[in-house]
Amino acid sequence: MNSKKNQVLKEAFSQGRLMTAMAAHNPLSARLAQDAGFGAIWGSGFELSASYAVPDANILSMGTHLEMMRAIASTVDIPLIADIDTGFGNAVNVSYVIPLYEAAGASAIVMEDKTFPKDTSLRADGRQELVRIEEFQGKIEAACAARRDPDFLIIARVEALIAGLGQEEALKRGLAYEQAGADAILIHSKQATPDQILSFVQAWTGKVPLVLVPTAYPQLTEADIAQLGKVGVVIYGNHAIRAAVGAMQAVFAQIRQDGGIQNVDANLPSVKTIIGLQGDAHMRQIEARFLR
């Protein structure tokens, strides 16, 4: 089953079809993303960290993230792209990590060229320190050598624009990571307009496709991205957790204001809806077939 998911993602890259990936921090948010029509799930380290109310700075263990990826992959029928930050260490760590994520059901990993522990890319005045190009090439090569299925994708994330090092450095790193075996390059920017990203895409001469995360520049639409001709996946990196937080804040405040649930209850999804999302119908089929 997972090999089919891997093929779906790889074919989207090779055929030039723009794949859309929605972030998820648990199986329920992943199922909702699949139901909404997204083509893939982004197993977001930021979202998972936020759901545990800790910073996105390698504070959660690899085991915590890995088990959540396993739970998500077993819940949805679309590919899962796992965000493994910096690979949880050096090239040796990466060699051990990749087979675990592959076995957990991920169809791809994204690994970024920051030092460990990392700081989240969109944090104001964050500590954005990059490793040497040669060191990260070694991590990419280790990841490629460790995968069992050649359709399992290794995506290298370039943080040079985030670190303020400019387009020349970003292009240099992207091409070096492609040379090391990366199947795609994720280029990230925190500027409020897409100009920096559009300039990078125009200047990109590599043969592998690009991946964009338009969190900071939401005015760039899927139609705009598809017209660029060089982008394989657009990732909506943190919208599930932001939607959940916004909804909970509004509902909780309304309950406190009203002194009860009399005004909010009618506007919430029904308990029946939640039970349906839990897979109740499948459980009933099992009961009918096997309970004696």
From TrEMBL:
Enzyme class: hydrolase
Keyword Transcription regulation belongs to the record: no
MF annotations from Gene Ontology: phosphonopyruvate hydrolase activity
Keywords: Hydrolase
Alphabetical list of InterPro entries matching this protein: ICL/PEPM, PPH, Pyrv/PenolPyrv_kinase-like_dom, Pyrv_kinase-like_dom_sf
Gene3D superfamilies on file: Phosphoenolpyruvate-binding domains
The UniProt record lists the keyword Ligase: no
Database matches in PANTHER family: PHOSPHOENOLPYRUVATE CARBOXYLASE, PHOSPHOENOLPYRUVATE PHOSPHOMUTASE
Family: Belongs to the isocitrate lyase/PEP mutase superfamily. PEP mutase family.
Name of the molecule in the record: Phosphonopyruvate hydrolase
Source organism of the structure: Alcaligenes ammonioxydans
